[in-house]
């Protein structure tokens, strides 16, 4: 049960309300985000909401039977729009393109990528400065220095920064330089990290877990929302299966299913989703047709020399071509009557 | 190693050739299809093909390191075109649409589906008369009678028949009434059935196994080809994973990968691939963008009353809309430079 | 619903009964096995069985809510014992050991294996004469000749034969030489084959599908039982997962779960279950402790020279050691109070 | 490549050595643990180790081709023994038993569990005070207070504490009260957490990831070891597959494979591995036979009233019986010649 509180509800009214609801055997969690105040009630599923609908402070009540509540479309039918400033948005009905290298490597590299993005009217850049690596001996990224170089150039160019945060202690040092915090596939269920990302007023893009279910992805988003941050983007990036001919199995089924269950925008990552450069464009366009609100892919001036993920990274020529194809495909999709 | 034999090679020349090759420690399998004669050599990978290239009867020799040989693109670069007659083809560069009910239910049902297909210029009809069911107590299909009713109407309407064959003994009784034999996902590795389908001159569409790899699908196709039948279509229909929000996980990665490895056409089945009616169109269009040469989906006048698979079956209005969208999406795809 | 018919029920009584039950909206399937006559009723789950319990011919009625009926423990609590003759049984409370090569290779090989089995008091021998191979160019077994050589020697030695049947047409030619028909992991849902195996009076061992669920294995067994054959053995042989360090993932969880759901005996195949010779003994003994009624493993005089599966095959010394360890482990297990 | 340094190597000698090795194109990582000093060399696989074997400070050099180095058996053949004090060890050749509730609930609950453990000579107790939960609204554990109550009672009783740490910031506040830090299945690839656990001198038990490979588990262990902590225990707890009849698929294949690849002890968790109380004992004993060095299972005075995981938790009577059976099974296993 979600109770949306009226804008002007004061503290004592809220406490009264919580106490009253508690008497019906319902456990209440209070949620305050950038956008509003909510009470989440768990337990006593047969509860008749008319018993509290008239109480002072209650603006609206919704029964949500899913295990996730605030991210459910059963409560909020209107799609969530993520406003990154400068007229840049990630939202249902538009097509976000996010491109950039796997790893941030140098100031020169950043400059060349930004140049490429500007030439192709791409407004968001991805790149890793803290890299999760399965081996402790592998390159772990340039860290905060890399992020600061990047920020300086991106800000000047009007380009938004999407980068992975790996642990709680990084949030504070990164927050001024990041537009979208990415939660990686190995951290989708790092609940402490999600809790803390609920406390910042920056967008958070949560990648589906390496073998995470659609339900778990939504519950992870619920952590961020219930922590206080409504600016959440979901990302399908492929799941682990028995198939070995591709790096992951891109599960595009997840796109319409997520869109039908949640009001949050959904992005597709074809680079990790198939892991083979030659086939990234096809899977990106398939992602557009499946209903995605955006595509995030890896691009590098010289993929063969990239520090990581070169085998799935497009060069600038391929990237330019793909960006145009994504836009044309999306334009066609908009003419269709799809859910 | 594949040795393509010259058209006019006589029996004794062929025997000489086989004996000669055998002396190099290579096991030879003879393959004769509708299109040509081949010798497949296995073993002795370091063999120098120049030793036999000049022999009488040898038209061409190809080294194919894959476990599948005749279906590999390493040997035959030109895409295979499946000609069903009446100008109807399944092939790279065109977009086949196959629609129809899960089960053939009655003569009246057939008539209504055919009417719908004609109105929408759809030339191929799917439907089951022999149904594989996990429970022995479930409806197992109308059998041969149903197929004969169907044949009569389809022939009159110029529509081609795609239907599943479940066992060897059915091939002979079905062959006169079928245009494309479908091998179901539970029979992808029924090697005896594949062997026998190699002996008929009808197209064979092999569905990927329930948890079959891309490699295994190609090896199953190799069975049919090496049995003597080159008219093979591959079908991605979703694989079994841990995810429970969809019936199967439609693996569209398989489309560009199959197309890059084999010269055979590839079809996508979004109905089984996601199993949820509302999302079949999105996944069909995603399949088109992934590079498929055709889409096969379930359609029924009244899906709620279908004998089986109703939850994933489109009604005629949805089907008409989808067929048009498939064509528009394919038209756009053809303007792109994709592999 | 399962209705067990009284022994002396005549045809007209049975027809009366079927008609009467049909009037309650229940679809009736008649099953006649070696052991008894049954009517299986599907539909109308709220039916009050007291309405027919008193009718002539009804010996017993059981409500079985599972999708499988006759193989369920909800109906038949007493474990099924498979009697192979000569005092050799596969059943709950004893420990069957089945050993032998992957492929039958020659009369000499058979002789040496039988000698080994006799020395170690092993009463059942496995071996393939029809081999399912993913490549059409691989060795497909010695066929019926091999089976006949084997039969002659096995019969003389009092050893029972376990071998795979791949298609319906083989059943008749094999039936006189086989004690247990094995249905391989690629044929677990070959429903026609299961139907036909329901018509013979030989034991049938069904291997779990390559990615088959426990539920599907029981439904496949239901095919054989409802076809008329109660002599069914279930075999856990590992499932396909993402893990690549072993050939399959041996799912020993399946053993106690199958034993709790069904009255049929359960066998474990550690050779295919892990696929690495050095670790077959540990997994065999783990299988015993998980509650298996038997172990089937691959043994060969010289595994390095075996035609197939050598990497997971024990030599005779290892096999002798393992057989003794299996027996000791089972003796210990019998002293425990396990389900 | 692993270079084990001589005990008395001083700083300048070590620097000389690092520089010298670097000249051969090898990237060197320095590792200092409780037990010794190492240099890990990555790159230049064809390097001839005789070129540095004679240098001052080098005690031993090993080539390790695996992606994990320090945890590999190729380097250190002798099994690692984890000494927890008071004569309590986890090591190859003995059988550790760890039991206790899913969640620590109260001081009274702790007292009763400890009483049960003492009566059954069980020396290690598991229990959660920080609980990872997929829903943000679920019970998240008693936290540090619960741990302190537990510590007081456990210390008095001579019982060791095994409990999950979820984030870096908890390590310092927990370290004085914990004997074995557990890394949960959702944190197996939380590399920052692993890094930090490398800096404490307490044992670390790493659970296999929810769909983690055996290789990834070893690489996660490598993080802890290369961070400076050799006291690592590996835990198989079931993986995520398509099978729905059990909570997870307990992959006992992992036990002999891990033991053959690494010198670290391996523990099996049958409670999470199957998730069904009635079958936990069978899977525990199967784990013993598969070669485990210990079993960790959930026990509670009254499982039906447990805050979490009640469905897979044994009561004290079942736990007492199982502990005895584990010991008897292990005693039998020791008489066998298994790898």
UniProtKB/TrEMBL annotation, chains A, B, C, D:
Record GO terms (molecular function): 3-deoxy-7-phosphoheptulonate synthase activity; aldehyde-lyase activity
Enzyme Commission no: 2.5.1.54
Pfam families per UniProt: DAHP_synth_1
Keywords on record: Transferase
Keyword Transferase recorded: yes
Ranges where the DAHP synthetase I/KDSA domain occurs: 88-329
Single GO biological process annotation from the record: aromatic amino acid family biosynthetic process
Membrane found in the keyword field: no
Listed name of the protein: 2-keto-3-deoxy-D-arabino-heptulosonate-7-phosphate synthase I beta
């Amino acid at each position: 049960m979600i109770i949306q509180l009226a804008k002007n509800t004061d503290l004592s009214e809220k406490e009264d309300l919580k106490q009253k609801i508690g008497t019906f055997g319902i456990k209440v969690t209070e949620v305050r985000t950038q956008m509003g105040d909510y009470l989440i009630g768990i337990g006593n599923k047969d509860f008749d909401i008319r018993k509290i609908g008239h109480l002072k402070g209650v603006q609206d009540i919704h029964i949500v039977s899913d295990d996730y509540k605030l991210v459910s479309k059963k409560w909020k039918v209107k799609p969530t729009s993520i406003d990154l400033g400068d007229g840049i948005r990630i939202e249902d009905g538009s097509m976000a393109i996010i491109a950039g290298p796997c790893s941030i490597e140098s100031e020169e590299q950043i400059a060349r990528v930004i140049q490429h993005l500007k030439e192709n009217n791409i407004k968001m850049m991805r790149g890793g400065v803290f890299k999760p690596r399965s081996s402790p001996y592998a390159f772990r990224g340039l860290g905060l220095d890399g992020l600061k170089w990047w920020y300086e150039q991106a800000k000047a160019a009007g380009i938004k920064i999407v980068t992975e945060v790996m642990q709680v202690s990084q949030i504070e040092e990164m927050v001024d330089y990041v537009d979208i915090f990415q939660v990686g596939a190995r951290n989708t269920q790092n609940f402490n990290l999600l809790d803390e990302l609920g406390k910042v007023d920056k967008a958070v893009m949560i990648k589906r877990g390496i073998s995470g279910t659609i339900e778990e992805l939504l519950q992870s988003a619920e952590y961020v929302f219930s922590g206080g941050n409504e600016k959440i983007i979901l990302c399908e990036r492929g799941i682990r299966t028995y198939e070995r001919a591709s790096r992951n199995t891109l599960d595009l089924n997840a796109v319409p299913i997520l869109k039908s269950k949640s009001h949050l925008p959904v992005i597709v990552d074809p680079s990790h989703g198939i892991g083979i450069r030659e086939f990234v464009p096809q899977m990106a366009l398939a992602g557009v047709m499946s209903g995605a609100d955006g595509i995030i892919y890896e691009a590098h001036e010289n993929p063969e020399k990239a520090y990581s993920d070169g085998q799935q990274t497009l060069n600038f020529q391929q990237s330019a071509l793909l960006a145009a194809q994504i836009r044309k495909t999306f334009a066609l999709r908009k003419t269709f009557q799809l859910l």
